[in-house]
Design brief:
Length: about 400
């Protein structure tokens, strides 16, 4: 069973590692390449009726590194938070700019919000309808951008490297957009809402119809966690463990302190991913009852942006370019294949850190030393990497655990 799980994990990631994005250079996508950006604001992509029956036009703001010559850049489509009741796309301009500085095309989008009276409080059914409408809107935004890339390619987007994400309600929308598909066991009340908004018809389905490379989940959730299955994209999550607005584990999403609809949060999604051999990374803010508290503190905000950028980088690039540039740095490991322990020695390097990582790039062990031993008896058999971080740069060596 463990060997089967290894195969399930290794097969998709082997392809990711073997097929770098053409612009990968060891720096782009995980580090700032240009502090200045180009922006295309106020681009209409769709329109539709709100839950109150009002006509609403929907717009995008698009950001990219200034003067960038690449015509095939990964895109991250992001949605703002606000409990599906308030908020605007300019609220996350700063987040789009951070990704654009790293080489992405970053897009902030409108979506239809709840606009019925707030007293009495929204019902679970009404809020589910609003979420379904938002999924329609994210699908429409994706289709608009993919259509442009296929014809004019105005924004230099690589349609094979599309990420979606958001903050709070925006992330709930992104998770449902990326994770709902025809294979999910959807209850009839959800199917009826999907049909009423045209996501499912008798002959077609928009569910799972877009190729999404990864999801950025900042304090979001799914209505039913089990909908996140092995056919869905890799997931990066960040969440306060005592969040009272969108549950970290299981609970109710709240509006103005009132329980509205049941949700399963980042911890549940990450746990399911781990059990099913999927790629998932969860950053937990411990002992925190805040909601998206990590974006209110500049240090934590920068850390979460960087962690999420590195997550996307690992889905786009290996470190082969860095390996080629650092051939003079000699690394010896023994034995390889290894079993209960792994010995290493590195020369021609200063301020050294040695990291043992798995296929996803997650650091399993680390030492600040040019030589040493990692005790590896508890690791599963499979492929690992020794990552050397020094003043000379970064070098990676592939290893096999028997």
């Amino acid at each position: 069973m463990r060997f089967l799980l290894l195969l399930l994990v290794f097969s998709p990631l082997a392809n990711l590692i073997a097929q770098d994005h053409p612009d990968c250079d060891g720096n782009r996508y995980r580090s700032v390449i240009n502090a200045e950006i180009d922006a295309w604001p106020n681009i209409k992509f769709s329109e539709g009726k709100t839950i109150a029956g009002r006509d609403r036009e929907l717009y995008l703001d698009i950001y990219a590194p200034k003067g960038d010559q690449s015509s095939s850049r990964p895109m991250v489509l992001l949605a703002f938070g606000g409990s599906f009741i308030n908020g605007k796309r300019t609220d996350i301009a700063w987040l789009c700019e951070e990704y654009a500085k790293r080489g992405f095309v970053a897009v902030s989008m409108d979506y239809r919000l709840y606009d019925l009276p707030l007293i009495p409080f929204p019902s679970a059914g009404d809020m589910q309808t609003v979420v379904v409408k938002s999924v329609v809107d994210m699908n429409a935004a994706l289709q608009f951008l993919l259509n442009d890339a296929a014809i004019a390619n105005t924004y230099g987007i690589d349609t094979n490297a599309v990420f979606v994400g958001g903050i709070s309600s925006g992330s709930i929308m992104a998770c449902h957009t990326a994770m709902l598909d025809d294979a999910d066991n959807l209850p009839s009340y959800i199917v009826n809402k999907l049909r009423s908004e045209g996501l499912i018809t008798d002959t077609t389905s928009m569910l799972g119809s877009k190729s999404i490379k990864g999801i950025l989940n900042f304090s979001g959730a799914l209505h039913i966690g089990d909908w996140y299955d092995s056919s869905d994209p890799p997931l990066f999550s960040c969440h306060d463990d005592g969040d009272g607005t969108v549950p970290y584990k299981n609970g109710y999403g709240q509006v103005f302190g009132q329980n509205i609809v049941e949700l399963e949060g980042s911890f549940v999604l990450d746990s399911l991913a781990k059990v099913r051999g999927m790629v998932s990374e969860l950053v937990t803010i411990p002992n925190s009852a805040g909601h998206v508290s990590y974006f209110t503190n500049e240090t934590q905000r920068n850390e979460m942006v960087q962690k999420s950028a590195v997550f996307m980088y690992k889905l786009l690039c290996s470190d082969r370019a860095e390996i080629r540039d650092l051939d003079k740095q000699k690394i010896s490991t023994s034995p390889n294949p290894f079993s209960h322990e792994l010995k290493f020695n590195v020369d021609q390097a200063n301020n050294l850190k040695i990291e043992l990582t798995d296929l996803t790039g997650s650091i399993l062990m680390s030492l600040d030393s040019s030589n040493g031993i990692f005790k590896t008896d508890k690791l599963c058999a499979g492929i690992y990497f020794l990552r050397v971080v020094s003043d000379n740069g970064i070098k990676v060596q592939k290893l096999i655990k028997q």
